[in-house]
C-alpha cells in the first residue's frame, strides 16, 4: 500500500512546493488539508484547487472559523496573552488547531505521515511536531523545507521550473501567515533591522491618521468573553471580525518587534492584529475593575507564563492545562462594559461599568462623603515598612 502524507496546506510557496517535492522524494501520495481560520483574501476553493493542481491526490478544506475563535482566540483574550508583552500569538494559537484536524484527516484518509512546510529556524516546526507527538505519536513526521535544506530561493526556482501556481516570486519574497486573529509578515527586506516597513505590507490596518474621526465603541463581556458590541449581541468570531474592521480602519494593532524565538535566535517580525489588541486591552481594563488585587497580581504572572507555553508549542502540555483552569477560575466576575475610543493607532479606554465592580466610590473619593478612615493609615504605613526599616538600620550601622 502506498504511503499517504497528510500535509498542512496553506496555499503559499512552501506548502505548494512541498506537494510535488514530497511525491518525488518520499514516493508517497499527498493529501492536502487547509483550514479556513478567517484569513480572508483568497477564496478557499481556489486554495483547494491549487493543491490539486500541484499534485495532491485529495484536497480538503475545513471551515474552522468559529472553532478557532471560541476554543483558541477566546482563551487568549482571557489570558491577556502577549508574548514578550507585545505579540498576541497570531500564529501560535492556530497551530494546535491545525494539528487536531491533520490528525483527524490522517485517521479518516489512511495517512501514514504528516507534513508541514516549516523551516528549521522557526517556532512552527516545534508547535506542529510537539502537537503530533502529543496527540498521535504513531504518525511519521516529514518537514521538507527543514529536512532537505529547502531554502526560499530554491523553492521559488523549483516552483517556476515546473510552473507551480504560487503567489510568491523572487521580487516579493515575504512570508505571510494570517487568520482572523491577525497577520504576520517576515523575511525579505525586513530581515535588515534598519529597514522600516513600507505601507504595502499591511492588509488588516490603514495608516494611522489624526485626521480621521474617532470611533467610540462599547464592548460588553460576560465571564471574560466578549458578548456584545454597542449593545448588539455577537459571537467571539463576530467580535473579532467587527473590531478588525473598526480598529483596523484606525490603524490599531500594528507591531514591529524583534522576537526571541524558541530555537534561540532573534527574529524581526511585523504583525497587525487590530481586533486582538483591542479585545485584550478591553479585557484587561475590565479585569482591573472586577478582579481582587492579590489575584490580579498573580494572574499577571500566570498570563505571561501561559503566553510562553503557547508560544513554545506546548498547547497540549500539562502546565498549559493547569494554567487554563486557573485563568478560567478568575473570570467568574469579569462581566461588564468597557467604552473605548479608537483613533489614530490607539484604543483608549474611557469608561468602565460592572455589577461585579470592586471599585467603591465612597472609599475612593476625596470629596465629602469619603468613608475611608484615614486615621488608620499612619499605623499601617509604619507596620508595612517595618521590616525594610529594620534591615536598612542594620546596613547603615554596618
TrEMBL record:
PANTHER family (alphabetical): ARGININOSUCCINATE SYNTHASE
GO cellular component labels: cytoplasm
Protein location: Cytoplasm
Keywords of the record: Amino-acid biosynthesis, Arginine biosynthesis, ATP-binding, Cytoplasm, Ligase, Nucleotide-binding
Pathway entry: Amino-acid biosynthesis; L-arginine biosynthesis; L-arginine from L-ornithine and carbamoyl phosphate: step 2/3
Chain's gene name: argG
NCBIfam families: argG (TIGR00032), PRK00509.1 (NF001770)
Residues the entry annotates as binding L-citrulline: 87, 123, 127, 175, 259, 271
Name this protein carries in UniProt: Argininosuccinate synthase
EC number assigned by the record: 6.3.4.5
Annotated ATP binding sites: 8-16, 117
Source organism of the structure: Corynebacterium tapiri
InterPro entries: Arginosuc_syn_C, Arginosuc_syn_N, Arginosuc_synth, Arginosuc_synth_CS, Arginosuc_synth_type_1_subfam, AS_cat/multimer_dom_body, Rossmann-like_a/b/a_fold
PROSITE patterns hit by this protein: ARGININOSUCCIN_SYN_1, ARGININOSUCCIN_SYN_2
